[in-house]
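Ligand: 2-oxoglutaric acid. Inputs:
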Amino acid sequence: MTLKKHALNKDFIWQNTNGPFVLISDQQAQQWNQSGFFVLEDVLPADLITSVKAAIDPMEAKTNAFLRTIEDKRKFIARADEITFALHPVLKSETVKDFSMHPVFAGLCLDLLGPTSRLYWDQAVYKKPYCPEEFPWHQDNGYNFVSPQDYLTCWVPLVDATVENGCPWVMPGIHKTGTIEHWQTDLGWQCLKGMVDAVPVEAKAGDIIVFSSLTPHRTGPNQTDIERKSYILQYSHDGSVMHTDDDQQVPQDNPDRQFLVTENGTQLG
Ligand SMILES: O=C(O)CCC(=O)C(=O)O
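Predicted complex:
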């Protein structure tokens, strides 16, 4: 596969993570280095997921209700009654804010990013029953280009995510290239076509799918009557900047939603 690099990806070198680790196993570290993803199984208790879901559901309901009122019932990648993106639940709920500082996320930051990290982005993504469309192949850093390019995405299923209801699929190995070129489609930014070598990643509520901002992923259509609910938390190196279309570099340190979760090797939660 010949991949063209993103115009801003000039000198990226993937750095393998090396122990000692506070949370992940050597095998997970090896999968991270080689494939750009792994699953942490059964690390979040059911009552915690229930309370996070209860906090997010009304936010998502408002988002979906808003989408129903606008032209074509869609805005950018969000479509009423198909796929919704409820942005920054941490701004609206202490339960969710506390969740974003949970030791499991702080531990992942220490093992995969380094001593000092911030929450960079958080959003709930709900795929409605019988949503017919996939969400196309992309790297998270293909949406808004952030430097350093390698941040961390934690895809948290709020209900069990299966191939049938639209779980993530990943393309292993490409993370080492850094950010690749994306093109715009009706469904979102896209960086790859086809499914050869793609790996479906099913996960249960209580698990976390962990992948790099540089790992191409997609989610499939929802072919069930179950609403597929996920909460996505992304953590970046302290000092990260977002590159804007007019060549500005905007620090990603909004104190309300991009707060530190680890500092000098210490978990702050
Ligand atoms: O969860 C989904 O269905 C797609 C969302 C996604 O991949 C993302 O927000 O990067």
